[in-house]
Amino acid sequence: MPDATNPKPSPLAYLAARLAEPSTWATITAILAGFGVSLPPGAAQDITAVGTGLAGLLGIILREGANTTTGE
Q1: Which residue among 21, 28, 39, 64 is least packed, with the fewest CB closer than 10 Å?
Q2: What's the burial of 9, exposed, middle or buried (CB within 10 Å: 0-12/13-18/19+)?
Q3: What is the distance between the alpha carbons of residues 39 and 43, in angstroms, rounded to a whole number?
Q4: pTM of the predicted model, to two decimals?
């Protein structure tokens, strides 16, 4: 984040960094649950199915390491 050339990150960069942390999403979920927001029946299963499908697709598309072209 901060470095010698840019000691203070922009608010957008700060927010993006916080949204990349799992604890931020856990806190957002807890706040929403505290306000009574919940998923409709069956939505959790749908979300899990879509997430599993996306994880499988990413497993096919993404490289495993830096040296995959050389076989090392």
Answers
A1: 64
A2: middle
A3: 6
A4: 0.48
